Amino acid sequence: MDTAFEAVFVARQPIFTPSLDVWGYELLFRTSIDCNTAIIEDGERATASVLADGLVAATQDMPQGRKILVNFPEALLASEAAYALPVDLGVVEILETVSATEETFEAVRELRSEGYTIALDDYTGEERNRPLLKYADIVKVDILELGSDAETVKKVVATIPEGKLLLAEKVEDRETFEMLKQLGFTLFQGFFFSKPEILEGRKLSSGELSRLQIMEELGREEVSLERLSEILGTDPSLSYRLFRYINSASFGLSVKVDSVERAVAMLGIKQITQWLKSAILSDMAPSQRGAELAFLSVQRAKFLELLCDETDACSIPDPLFITGLFSLLDAMLDIRMKDILETLPLDQTVVDALTGKSKLHKLLMLAHSYERGYWADCDRRMKALGLKPERVNRLYAQSRNWAAQVMGAAR
User: Fold this and answer.
1) Hey, what CATH topology would domain 206-410 get?
2) What is the Cα–Cα distance from 245 to 241, expressed in whole angstroms?
3) Which residues lie below 8 Å from residue 106, measured CB to CB, with a gap of 6+?
4) Is 57 helix (H, G, I), strand (E, B) or coil?
């Protein structure tokens, strides 16, 4: 197979219901180090293989029943690439650039006859896209393109036949989210979920504060295995999850571990503290929206830590791990970041990274671009940081796999 298809990298964006439960995910594929589009159009079998391999990476920690959306350009609709998607979960997303030809209609009819759900991407009411509406089960409306204006969105919605699921994409804030619910949208995609809904007078609860203080304590250089065992020993839930983690197949142990002290000793200071921080963070986010934020935070933490060895912007990795882990706390707790930082005294390196006052913030913004699938922006940022794209792509994939393993045991 062509080397362009040897490595597959995936960004995964959640799609929410009005109650902020997770309905599914859109998978954004980057299939080579110099590719800024979702899928390389170079051969049916190669593309199908890319989809199949990428699905494994992106869905290994995905709860059952969640839908999976994948973009398909025109050249791929007539191929067999879409059949790499599981029919009960797969949603074939027709790009806005696809022509309304008889060949396209026939390909979509065949997919529907096989049971696939069809989504029309980036619909903005243009006449050239309307013939495809009759074949779509889901219509994705690009809210950012429409300026997030209620009257403009209403006019676009009026052109969509009744009975279609309306999915608002690129929703960037809560106000727009609430407006779209009133206009009949039932699915929502965008990073509005990762922004705090500030509640005036909201303070950290004693439980939240104590968890954050434990996380801060775990970041100290002098933390001991004895202290970690003590923290775990007073929390049956954490102890149970630790045993589930260390006895999982990924460790390949021949003898079951059922002692906190032994588990801590086997994992070592670094691995046990990172797992504990992740587990405590997941406890602070019981909702599905919170779980997505927790996963994103843990993946960011590992990604930033792994990047430390690749750039002269960083000397030690620990502050970067904490930076990633804490970077979405404002959204998880609906409290301004500055209030969190005032309540919880962190190392100044972490504070500067979170507030944009150091070079480390540039690494955080690189993670931000990866999560959104902004591949051109990723390449620009990597070039500015002197990072090698192929290496960074692999570290991002590694961070996803690590987060999936850790968060699966932390919940």
Assistant:
1) Hypothetical protein af1432 (1.10.3210)
2) 6
3) none
4) helix
Rounded to an integer, what distance in angstroms lies between the CA atom of residue 136 and that of residue 159?
A: 13
Q: Spell out the residues 6+ positions from residue 121 whose beta carbon is closer than 8 angstroms to its own.
A: 71, 93, 94, 95, 96, 140
H-type helices in 19-88, by residue range?
A: 44-59, 74-77
Rounded CA gap, 10 and 202, in Å?
A: 36
CB atoms inside a 10 Å sphere around CB 355:
12
Q: How far is the first Cα of the chain from the last one, in angstroms, to the nearest whole number?
A: 39
CA 224 to chain centre: 33
| Span 224-240, pLDDT tens digits | 777 777 777 777 777 87
Q: Give 43-48 contacts, CB < 8 A, sequence gap 24+.
A: 43/2, 44/76, 44/79, 44/80, 44/81, 46/1, 46/2, 46/5, 47/76, 47/79, 47/81, 48/79, 48/80, 48/81, 48/83, 48/84
* pLDDT above 60 for 161: yes
pTM exceeds cut of 0.85:
no
The topology (CATH level 3) of 3-194 is: TIM Barrel (3.20.20)
Name the residue ranges covered by the structural domains of the chain: 3-194, 206-410
Backbone angles phi, psi at 199, to 5 degrees: -105, 120
Q: What pLDDT sits at residue 45?
A: 45
